[in-house]
């Protein structure tokens, strides 16, 4: 493999990538903004390069600053992590042009899957069903309203270049369409692209996604699914694998679709194909539709690592260095059950209001058999308003789903944080709720649970 | 008429100022939108009144409790 590896990210994912580099004997180089000079991810790497002031646009989102840091440091490979520049095709190209190996898919695959409308066109070509909707060229308010009526309310308006729940608006009926469209466009502008698409809104939905892993020699495999239905503001908080109610036959079908899409865009590396499933039981392949592909490592990749025993960052590095994947699809059946919780600096009692500040004290449970902790911050670190509120991920693995849920809830019980608010207690109660124990909750569950929890 | 100070509830940056001085606002109207930890947080008018002055600019950093706007109410 080619070291050193520049890690173009921060927080827990930068620490996690550095750990794999170390295990593989690759030198790692962190980058940091002025707000992160003393951050945990800087200490986790073998060296570090300053890339600019605290605002992301001037540091973690600055392609010139990161390329310059990579060249200055002698890096040969660049790992983008998730978020920031990880799905930026221009960044992938800039790396290649600077003689660096971008750890991710080819620029063309990022572009093909980069917009939701473009991704749906790929899906149509590949024969994979996408959510019924309109993503045509005519973006006039009149045409969009007409298409919404044809699709049937409720509908969702989504920014073509959006993500992370931003630039999305649900519309219940025709009279609300113009105002929702204006709001969605306003948020879309923040992505530098005000185009939107209109989609059927599935009233009770589960978020199910499939991990794919491909090498540069034509092998494309899937590593099973993750159910990420526990969300707030369309952002995931708890993820698990296998997905409740998903049997081997359905897994094979979703895997087939994900692999077909990855092949269609010449995918290389680790990626995730996201689906929305009608949550009305039983899960039915005919009511599961493709939404988008994330052309990067996901926050929730550890649950897949726990049930497959693979280190996805290791395989990203090996694939980027040109190695072949040495497994066959039949070697990759999931073992046991894994669940992840995102420990965030936020206050569930105040509608998940972020809680930036200095972490006066942070105690996380000790990792051990069946419990993994991916942390990005320590006692004394500062959580600034510039970056996202993720402090650490706690991941439990056990032979059964019930044991994994309880192991994770117990781990959350053991979290002690002072100086900031966290969602640890809230998530532990959610994991122990009857609905979660039963499995198969939809994407509205967590918000409803929050209201009941606040009242209790 | 009395001056009503409108503080922010979170450390954030000012993303977008919606209100203008002299504007009449109702309770619950969005005066400005903050951004913190990748989330947009609206600052709503605590009551009906007229916007007297705006004490911050877009892009400014504000701290929890800081007064960002004065209202005549």
UniProtKB/TrEMBL annotation, chain A:
Superkingdom of the organism of origin: Bacteria
PANTHER family in UniProt: CARBOXYLASE:PYRUVATE/ACETYL-COA/PROPIONYL-COA CARBOXYLASE (PTHR18866), METHYLCROTONOYL-COA CARBOXYLASE SUBUNIT ALPHA, MITOCHONDRIAL-RELATED (PTHR18866:SF33)
Domain ATP-grasp: 120-321
Domain annotation Biotin carboxylation: ranges: 1-451
Name of protein: 3-methylcrotonyl-CoA carboxylase alpha subunit
Keyword ATP-binding: yes
InterPro entries linked: ATP-grasp (IPR011761), BC-like_N (IPR005481), Biotin_carboxylase_complex (IPR050856), Biotin_carboxylation_dom (IPR011764), Biotin_COase_C (IPR005482), CPAse_ATP-bd (IPR005479), PreATP-grasp_dom_sf (IPR016185), Rudment_hybrid_motif (IPR011054)
Keyword annotations of the record: ATP-binding, Biotin, Ligase, Nucleotide-binding
Example of a GO MF term: metal ion binding
Entries under Pfam families matching the protein: Biotin_carb_C, Biotin_carb_N, CPSase_L_D2
UniProtKB/TrEMBL annotation, chain B:
SUPFAM superfamilies attached to this UniProt entry: Single hybrid motif
Xref: InterPro entries: Biotin_Carboxyl_Carrier/Decarb, Biotin_lipoyl, Single_hybrid_motif
Lipoyl-binding domain mapped to chain residues: 1-72
Xref: PROSITE patterns: BIOTINYL_LIPOYL (PS50968)
Chain segments annotated as transmembrane: none
Superkingdom of the source species: Bacteria
Keyword Isomerase: no
Alphabetically ordered keywords of this record: Biotin
Pfam families the record matches: Biotin_lipoyl (PF00364)
NCBIfam families: PRK05889.1
Protein name: Acetyl-CoA carboxylase biotin carboxyl carrier protein
Biological source species: Belnapia rosea
């Amino acid at each position: 493999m080619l070291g050193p590896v520049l890690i173009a990210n921060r927080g827990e994912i930068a620490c996690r990538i550095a750990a794999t580099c170390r295990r593989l004997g690759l030198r790692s180089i962190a980058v940091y903004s002025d707000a992160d000079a003393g951050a945990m991810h800087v200490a986790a790497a073998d060296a570090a390069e300053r890339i600019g002031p605290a605002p992301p646009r001037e540091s973690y989102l600055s392609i010139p600053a990161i390329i310059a840091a990579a060249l200055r440091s002698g890096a040969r490979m660049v790992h983008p992590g998730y978020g920031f520049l990880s799905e930026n095709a221009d960044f992938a190209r800039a790396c290649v042009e600077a003689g660096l190996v971008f750890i991710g898919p080819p620029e063309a695959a990022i572009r093909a899957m980069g917009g939701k409308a473009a991704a749906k066109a790929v899906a149509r070509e590949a024969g994979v069903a996408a959510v019924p909707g309109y993503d045509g060229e005519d973006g006039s308010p009149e045409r969009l309203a007409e298409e919404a009526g044809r699709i049937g309310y409720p509908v969702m308006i989504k920014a073509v270049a959006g993500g992370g729940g931003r630039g999305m608006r649900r519309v219940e009926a025709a009279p609300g369409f113009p105002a929702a469209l204006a709001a969605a466009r306003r948020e879309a502008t923040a992505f530098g692209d005000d185009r939107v698409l209109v989609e059927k809104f599935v009233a009770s939905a589960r978020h199910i996604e499939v991990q794919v892993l491909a090498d540069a020699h034509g092998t494309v495999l899937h590593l099973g699914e993750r159910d990420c239905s526990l969300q707030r503001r369309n952002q995931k908080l708890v993820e698990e694998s296998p997905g409740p109610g998903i049997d081997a036959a359905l897994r094979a079908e979703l895997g087939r679709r994900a692999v077909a899409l990855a092949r269609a865009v010449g995918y290389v590396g680790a990626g995730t194909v996201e689906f929305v499933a009608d949550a009305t039981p039983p899960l039915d392949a005919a009511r599961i539709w493709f939404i988008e592909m994330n052309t990067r490592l996901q926050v929730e990749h550890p649950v897949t690592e726990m049930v497959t025993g693979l280190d996805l960052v290791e395989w990203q590095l090996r694939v980027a260095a040109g190695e072949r994947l040495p497994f066959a699809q039949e070697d990759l059946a999931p073992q046991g059950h894994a669940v992840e919780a995102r420990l965030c600096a936020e206050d569930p009692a105040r509608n998940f209001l972020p809680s930036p500040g200095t972490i006066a004290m942070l105690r996380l449970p000790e990792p051990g058999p069946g419990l993994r902790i991916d942390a990005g911050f320590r006692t004394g670190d500062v959580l600034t308003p510039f970056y996202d509120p993720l402090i650490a991920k706690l991941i439990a693995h056990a032979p059964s789903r019930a044991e994994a849920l309880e192991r994770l809830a117990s781990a959350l019980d053991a979290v002690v944080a002072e100086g900031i608010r966290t969602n640890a207690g809230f998530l532990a109660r959610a994991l122990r709720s009857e609905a979660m124990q039963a499995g198969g909750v939809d994407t509205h569950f967590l918000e409803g649970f929050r209201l009941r929890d606040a009242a209790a | 008429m009395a001056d009503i100070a409108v503080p922010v509830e979170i450390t954030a940056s000012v993303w977008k100022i919606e209100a203008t001085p002299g504007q009449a606002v109702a309770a619950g109207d969005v005066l400005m939108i903050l951004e913190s930890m990748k989330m947009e947080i609206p600052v709503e008018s605590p009551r009906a009144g007229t916007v007297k002055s705006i004490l911050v600019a877009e892009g400014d950093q504000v701290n929890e409790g800081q007064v960002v706007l004065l209202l005549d109410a």
